[in-house]
Design brief:
Order of helices and strands of chain A: EEEHEHEHHEEEHEHEHHHEEEHEEH
CATH class of the largest domain in chain A: Alpha Beta
Helix content of chain A: 25-40%
Oligomer: homodimer
CATH architecture of the largest domain in chain A: 4-Layer Sandwich
Radius of gyration of chain A: 22 Å
Distance between the termini of chain A: 48 Å
Shape of chain A: globular
Number of helices of chain A: 11
């Protein structure tokens, strides 16, 4: 039985975290944490998934290299600069690991490294190196909150979760923090998400579980169609729960994967709902599909459509844009079979049946679409498969935030 | 020698046009034309390209059917309603052709029919039928302007062009009107564009020329990534210029195609620059590519990126977003070879060389990016091919226009 607990990335046994302000970005507020450190007291099985963008930031290459042996001890991450597309970025990513290692008595290769922020400007590595001893000294089992705030950029809410579940008769805990608000689109590794667990599991099984789960959670989010250069999702599992090591895809693997899926799904929805400038979370559920893959493709096209997003901002039941977006998704379906309704806590409004518009109560539709979470429910009436994807509305604030983010 | 002349779709011999207000949209201003009619005095070779959206509006199917024989006499089109995804839409599209035929003494099958506006609401066919005799009576060689305004929706400027060129020793004229502002994205047939010419050319040669040209002009525009259900580009050629009939891809075909390309390129740029809410035309030129196809894919990704578009709105030289968009385009290139500069009438600012950022004058960059037309110039330094695509910036007004377009 999976239940939510507190503690974030420190909920699992043997993990400490810290978040401090070191001044990565010139002129940033001393109240804004910008350096996060997470450390396990034992070696962890480790797995990562990364952006599919051809332009990858240097920290991704360094992390891939450090995780090649399938083990790690900790994570070091900064906000305020993406450490991407700049001379010396690879050396600086290595320097971050070296500084973390020196401050914690470990090796540079034991660390995952991530950066998030502006692309193409030199990172202030001196500030990070100077701040690292402070971060290491601040490591504690209460540190998840501080670490979660240290990786935020334009995020308006902290994204953190912790779960307790049972694997092979033992209590296993899993916690995570994430960031993500803009430059977010499916078809990627994911945004930044750090997951810790005390589950005993091999690196191979951990990677399989993570790939599967990320594909159905983080990769089903879109904010603006822009796949970042820095997306990384990493999970560290230190085995301290004492469950029998998961080496096969047995019922214990399934139990662990269910908890991982629960956590990632929650964070994915949180990222979509906190999309840059967003005023509401928009979910598109496609049901009655012949395959999950085509349902996913259709749902992604709907939540990714600028016109659907703008209509959601205006609480406008403009379902023609939903059908139009499905039409250019390249997934097969028959428009003349499609039913569409808008749903939220305020009610359900069917707007299209068998591809043709229905008369509906415009006032009720307005109320339904004015809620913080709205669902665009589409039934293809062609099969038994389904998928849902998450996005947000397109608002004046998105334009404002991104019209002058760099300076 | 191709030169620009006046007259729009009536510049070529034997064409008349009209645009009137008939009241397609309830409560619309009597000053807003909403019904356009174009008629040739002789039978025309005719060719069309259409949206690739799986959800196609009824008028597209009717037009495809009417053009199956490769000939037509005229075009009837309305704004204010897309006549899509609504019971009876096919019958209403046929009824528009029948009404045009009755008012002009022709057959319904002689007409191309197009509609543009909101999807999913019943079209007011009675208003169109009632207005058709007025439109027919208004047909004149001065009618291009009125027809051009009759197909506008959120367009802020009329899109019209006429050219004179020489084909086989004869003066050939070609004119066009177009509309397009939102729901515009490459990978489509195109938006609405009607082209008339007195060139003598077979339907087969006309179709080949149109497909080639549309692929390199209209299909290289994006406003918002949403491919419409109604996009149509049609060309009518009545042969009255008296040139020898173009039956082969000879120098006469090339001369005609060059004029067609000139006209379509101008209209494509006009549509991009008049994108919904746009304050500037953004061109991305990719040079030094190994293939034109990959150059086009890269350029499309750049002008289609919400983050690049928002940066262009803010006159922010955020070139990292340019490289990021190229990275997720799925086209092959080496980030470490890429040079990027921003260009406009105010100057040129190199911002990235060999994949790494350059120091640049922020004030100059701001001035360069504040012009009405800006170019993002990218050299891949890998080959001799190139392509350019056109888009616009993402502004508060785009969100405003689309937050409540339907009501």
């Amino acid at each position: 039985m999976t239940k939510e607990i507190t503690g974030g990335v420190c909920a699992a046994q043997g993990f400490k975290a810290a978040g401090i302000h070191c001044g990565v970005k010139a002129g940033s507020s001393p109240d804004k944490n910008d350096l996060a450190l997470i450390l396990s007291e034992r070696e962890c099985s480790a797995a990562g998934v990364y952006t599919l963008n051809r332009v990858k930031a240097a920290p991704i290459y360094v992390t891939m290299d450090h995780l090649e042996n399938g083990v790690a001890w900790g994570i070091v991450a900064n906000s305020g600069n993406a450490n991407a597309c700049c001379p010396g970025s690879h050396e600086n990513a290595e320097a971050m690991c070296a500084a973390a290692a020196k401050a914690t008595g470990r090796e540079a290769e034991d660390f995952v490294v991530c950066s998030t922020g502006v692309i193409g400007q030199a990172i202030n590595i001196e500030a990070i190196e100077a701040g690292m001893p402070t971060a290491a000294a601040a490591l504690s089992t209460d540190g998840s909150d501080a670490a979660a705030t240290a990786i935020m950029t334009t995020d308006t809410v902290k994204k953190e979760i912790a779960l307790s579940c049972t694997v092979g008769g033992k209590e296993v805990r899993l916690g995570a923090i994430a960031k993500g608000s803009g430059m977010i689109h499916p078809n990627m590794g994911t945004m930044l998400a750090f997951i810790t667990t005390d589950c005993a599991i091999t690196p191979e099984m951990l990677e399989d579980a993570l790939r599967d789960v990320a594909g159905k959670t983080f990769n089903r989010v879109t904010v603006d169609g822009d796949t970042s250069t820095n997306d990384t999702c990493v999970v560290l599992a230190n085995g301290m729960a004492g469950n029998d090591l998961i080496e096969w895809k047995d019922e214990n693997y399934d139990a662990f994967k269910a908890a991982l899926d629960y956590a990632c799904r929650r964070l994915a929805r949180a990222i979509a709902g906190d999309g840059e400038g967003a005023s509401r979370l928009v979910t598109c559920k496609i049901s009655g599909a012949r395959s999950e893959e085509s349902a996913e493709r259709l749902a992604k096209a709907v939540v990714g459509s600028a016109l659907v997003k703008a209509a959601m901002f205006g609480s406008d039941a403009n379902w023609g844009r939903v059908l139009c977006a499905m039409g250019y998704s390249k997934a097969p379906f028959r428009p003349e079979h499609v039913d569409i309704s808008f749903e939220s806590a305020a009610g359900t409004v069917p707007v299209c049946r068998q591809g043709d518009g229905l008369a509906f109560d415009e006032d009720l539709a307005k109320r339904v679409l004015s809620e913080k979470e709205v669902v665009i429910a589409v039934n293809l009436n062609e099969g038994g498969e389904e998928a849902e994807c998450w996005g947000c509305d397109l608002t004046y604030d998105y334009v404002k935030i991104n019209g002058d983010y760099r300076t």
